[in-house]
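Q: Structure for this?
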Amino acid sequence: MGKDIIADHARWPRLEDEIFKVSEECKRAIKEKGRDKIINSTLGTLIDDDGNLIAFNSVYDTLKNMDKKSIASYGAIEGDEAYLDLLVDKCFGPYKPKAYIKAVATAGGTGAVRHSLWTFLNQGDYAICPNWYWPAYLTMCEEFDREFKTYEFLDEDFNFNLEEFTKSLDFALEKRDRVVCIFNSPANNPTGFSIEDSMWDKILDVIKSRAVDGKYINILLDVAYIEFAGDGSQKKFFQKFSSLPENIITTVAYSMSKSYTAYGLRAGACIIISSNEDMANRAFDSMKHSNRANLSNITHAGMNILVDIENDEEMKKSYENELELNRLLLEKRAKVFVKKAKEIDLIHLPYFGGFFISIPCNNPKEVSKKLKEKNMYIVANKNGLRFAVCAVSEEKCEISPKLIKEAIDEVNR
Amino acid sequence: MGKDIIADHARWPRLEDEIFKVSEECKRAIKEKGRDKIINSTLGTLIDDDGNLIAFNSVYDTLKNMDKKSIASYGAIEGDEAYLDLLVDKCFGPYKPKAYIKAVATAGGTGAVRHSLWTFLNQGDYAICPNWYWPAYLTMCEEFDREFKTYEFLDEDFNFNLEEFTKSLDFALEKRDRVVCIFNSPANNPTGFSIEDSMWDKILDVIKSRAVDGKYINILLDVAYIEFAGDGSQKKFFQKFSSLPENIITTVAYSMSKSYTAYGLRAGACIIISSNEDMANRAFDSMKHSNRANLSNITHAGMNILVDIENDEEMKKSYENELELNRLLLEKRAKVFVKKAKEIDLIHLPYFGGFFISIPCNNPKEVSKKLKEKNMYIVANKNGLRFAVCAVSEEKCEISPKLIKEAIDEVNR
C-alpha cells in the first residue's frame, strides 16, 4: 500500500450510513407534507403512533431520581458486580445454562460482539453469519482484519438453512483453527426470524461434531431483541448451552438499548458460557483488558438503572409493564402487516418478533427509491427491504404491504 | 504459543487494578477508624473535604432537566455535530491552531488515545512516552500490539528532558516509519507537571527535523486535566500546532470526565489537527470506522450536557463558576502540600496543576505499605508515589508531606 499518515490497516472510506441518509430525507418530507402523509420505516428505535421516541418512564424516572454522585463516578472496568449478576439473571430467566458463567460490561450489544470477534479470533480467521445480517458485523470484521463469510440464511421452506451453515462452518475450519458463528436470534435484525428450539439441537450437533481437537468454536448469540421476541419461552434455548465440549465457548451479547429503551446510554454485557472454569475466567480477563484499552469502563448510569430497577419491587413491576405493553404494540403492528401481506401475496421472511420484518426482492435500492414517490421511506439492504414495525403505526402497517408490493412490481416488471 | 480457546494475541493475565485494591483497603480503614483519622490519597476524582465525590450541580441539573427522549436516543456514530463543534471551541479557547480540524466523539479521553494508537500505528510500531505515565497507555499498546517505549521524563533540573525524548524518537523512527509521541500535559497525570511554551518550541523543532519524507509522526496531546491547569493561558501552546509539515498529525484527547466531573458518562473527543485537509478527513474516516466497530456511538446524555450548558448563558456561567471554584480548591491544597514539602526537604516533581503530585523515591511499594501504618493510603507506581490533591483535604495536605518523608526514610534508610 502507498505511503500515508494513516496506518495501512486503518484506511477506510467514509462510513456512509445509508439508514441515516434515508432517515434525513424522510424528516424533510415530513416537514414538507406533514407526518400523516409519510410512512417512516427508517428508524431502529421504538416509536409511538404519533412519531415520538418511546422512552420508558420507569427507566428515566429511575435515572432522574439517581444520586448525582452515582452518575458522576466511574464504574468498575469489567462492570459493577451487582449489575453483571442481575443482568445475567435477567437475560437467562429460568433457563440459565449449567456451566461456568462470567460477564463483562460492554458498550451496548456492539461491545459484546466486538469482544467476541477480538478475543476468539486471530487476524485472518473467519466469522460466519447468515446473509441477512446487521451491517456492523461486517464493519467490525473489516476493522479487526477478520474474514466475514455469509451463508444463505433460510432454505426454500423458510427454515434455518442448516446445510449452508454447515458448509460455511466446514469451510472456515478447513482454512483455519478458529471460528466465530454469529447468530442474531431470537427476533433477528433485520428479519424478525427466530431459530426454533429443535433447530438449535441440530445446529449444536453440527458444531459439536466439528469441535475436534485443535479447533476452537465461539458461538456468539446476539440477543439484542430478545425481550421483544416472545412471552418468555424464547429464552428456553439458553439451556442448550450447558455442558458443551471445552473447545466450544458461547458468548451472549445482551443489550439495554432496546430492552430498556436506553439506546443512548451504551450499556450491555458480554456473557461468557463455558464448561471449563479456567477458560471462562481467561475469556473474562481478555475482555477486561479490552475494556481498559478501548473505553476504560461503561456508562455508570446505565448500570445503575438496571440495578436500581431490579432492586425496587414497584419500579420493577412498572418497568415490566412498560416492556410488555410495547412488546404487544409491536406484535399488533406486525400482525396487521403480515395479514395484509398475505392477502395480497407479498412475500416476507417469517416474523417471530422484534423490531423488523424483511421483504426479499430484486433491486431493493430501486424499490426503496420508488417507494419515496409513494411517501414511504424504507431501508434497503442487499437482499430486500427492512420494514420497521418498531417505528410505523398500526394504521400505516396496514397500508404498507400494498405500497411495497406495487413498488416491487413497478421496478421489477 | 500453546493451543487455547483464547486467540494468541488476546491472552492476558487478569488486569489487577492496584489503585482499586489500595482504595478498597482504605475504605475498610475508614469504616474501622473513622474518616478523620485516615488520609485517602487513592482516588482520581475530585473529592470535597468531607470525603464526598464532587459532582457539579450545573452538569447534573442539566441532565435532570433533559428531555428523556434526548437521553434515550442514539447519538451519531462520529458524535453529534453541535457537540463536536462546541467541544473544539471549548478545548482550544482563543488559541485554536490554524489548520484543518476535525473531531470524533470518544469514550472519555481513553477512546481518543486508543484511536490515535490504532489509526496512526501498525502492529510493531512505537508509541514513545515519558517514564511517569498513566498506566492505561501501556495496556492499550499491549492490546493492539504496539511497542511502548518510555524515556526519562525530566532532567536533573526538573525540566522536560529534551535529550532523552529525542533519543527515544530517533530510536523509534530508525526501527520503523511511524511513531506516536504521547504527551500528557498540561497538568500531567501522575505528576502535575506542565511542559512550558518555550520547551514546546524545542520539542516541535526536533519533531519537525525528524519528519522527513516517508516518516509519519502523530503528536498525541492528552489534555485530560487541562481545565485544572491554569487560568486559561495553559491553552496558548495549542497555537503552535498550526502549519506543521503534512507528515506530522496532531491529535488532542479531550475528556469531559474531569472538566465536567462526568467520569461515569464516558464522553470525550479526539480532535484531529493537520495542515492537509484530506489527511484530517481520512483520519476522521478511520476513527469513525473504529467507533462503529467498537461501541457504535458514545453516551448521548454526555454530549447533550455539553451542548445544553454551552447554549444556556446562565447555566454556562454557573458551570464556569463551579469549575473555577474547584480549580482554586486544588490550587490551595497543592500550595499547602508544596510549602510543607519544601520546609522538610521532601522532594517532589514540579507541580503546575491537575489532580496529582508525584514524589520520586526508592521502593515506592514498600513506602506505600509503610504509610498504611501511618493511616495514609497512597498509590505507588514504578518511580514513586502519587499524591492525590484532588482527594485530600487542605488540612490533611498539610500533614501529608511529613508522613511521606518519614515513611521514605524508614524504608530506605
